[in-house]
Amino acid sequence: MHTSASIGQKIARLVATSVLVSILTIAGLLAWFQVNVSIASKKSALQATGYVYASAIADSVVRGDKANASHVLSSIGRSSDIVYAVALDNQDRTLAKMGNATILLRDLILEDQGVVAMLTKGTLPIAVDIVRGGERVGRLVVIADIKPIRTQLLWTLLVTALTAGFASLVGVAIAVPLQRRITAPIQAVVRAMRHIAREREYTTKVDHKADDETGLLVDAFNSMLSEINSRDVALEKLAFFDALTGLPSRQYFQKQMAETLAAYDAAGTTAALVLLDLDDFKQVNDAFGHTVGDGLLMSIAALLKQELADSVQLSRIGGDEFTIIMQNVLTELDVQAKLAPFIASLYQPIRILEHELYVSVSAGIAMIPRDGKSSSELMRHADLALYSAKRQGHGLVHFYQASMDVAIRENTEIALSLRSAISGNEFNIHYQPQINVESGRVYGFEALLRWTHPLRGDIPPNQFIPVAESSGLISEIGKWVLHGACVQAKAWLDVGHSPREVSVNVSAAQILHADFLQEVRAVLEETALPPHLLCLELTESLFIGKSVEKVRKILESLRDLGVLLALDDFGTGYSSLSYLEKLPFDKLKIDQSFVNGCEKDTAKQSILRGIIMLSHSMGMEVVAEGVETAGELALLRKLGADHVQGFAFAEPLPADQVLATAQTITRQYARKFGTTAAKAAS
Question: pTM for the full model?
Answer without folding.
Answer: 0.51
